[in-house]
Please model this.
Amino acid sequence: MGLAKLRIECVIMLTTYFRSSSYNTFDNCQMQYFLNYVLGLEYRATLKATLGNVIHKALECLALQKKCQQEGLRVFNDDAFGKVKISECDPDCLIERSFDWHRKNFTHDDWDNSADLKFCRKYMHEALTFDGGRYDPRNRKVIEAEQRFDFEIEKSWAKYCYILPNGKKLEGNLSLKGTIDLITEVRPGVLEIIDWKTGKHRTNFATGKVKDFHGLMDDPQLRMYHYAAHQLYPEIKHIIMTIYYIQAGGPFTLPLGPEDFAKTEDMIKNQFERVQRVTRPQLNPAPPWSSRPNKFTNWKCVKKSGQPFCTYAKPSKHDPNKTECQFFRDMVNKIGIEKVTEKYGDIDKLTHYQDGGGKRAK
Ligand code: SF4
Model:
């Protein structure tokens, strides 16, 4: 039976959109993808991820400060801080403000106020001062910070049609969604996108391989952002992609161009088809409750200390004797993925995503 027919006749792993995070999650663990992006169960960020967000927020505000200056404005609106006067945008003040805001809004057992703030301040300054301030948003012409995108891919391969067990039909085209950290103008007709990475390692989480220049050329996030940026700015012919590993090797600028769209689309198409073929999501890191546990890879589920690393390695609220991951694995085996999706998934959210607006890719 061909994939197109499968899509019509039964529900498989519903997918109506990709973000770079969902794309990567599928490679890392199919069950995590299913729980997070299909059923819509919350995945709680680690402290390290929250500290990365602290740095991102400070850099975002500095970019917005510059954009205001370019436009002769004195105040901008921030989704976390509300109205911010550009006169208050000193990097050290911003990092403290960002830290305090995240400290109040995100609960982690292992916050260390002094050391964590020091860490954030240090890496924010690394980003600002590298190569004489070349990547400091204040030294650039800022087009946008935290630019969101959300558009459907208008290609025949991107169409989906799912019939839920209750008879409801979901149909549309696969969407791409995401947020681009910083878009700057290098010169008229040339934009540079900068994506900050604050992690300690420059590795592919799924494979463990270090991302070198060639690996980055095939990086799904960069390719998706490059593709999306051309949808957002169709009049611009040259969009340069820079990924900046603040802690792990500095900036990498990639020569992606419009001639790369075909490969990017192929990559997305293949992943879309792979996801839709899944009827029993694999527990890729092989945790202790999987059929073939692997102690070398299951640190992605449970830490050496026995504490959960993955949110879904915590006790299930449906059955405290099992982890959430184990509970849903067993449910899928028992009643099938479609019934689990119908019973536990947020179908309205999936429908809503399908209806999401945004530009359409030609
Ligand atoms: S606990 Fe492990 S196997 Fe289960 S969803 Fe999380 S990463 Fe995947």
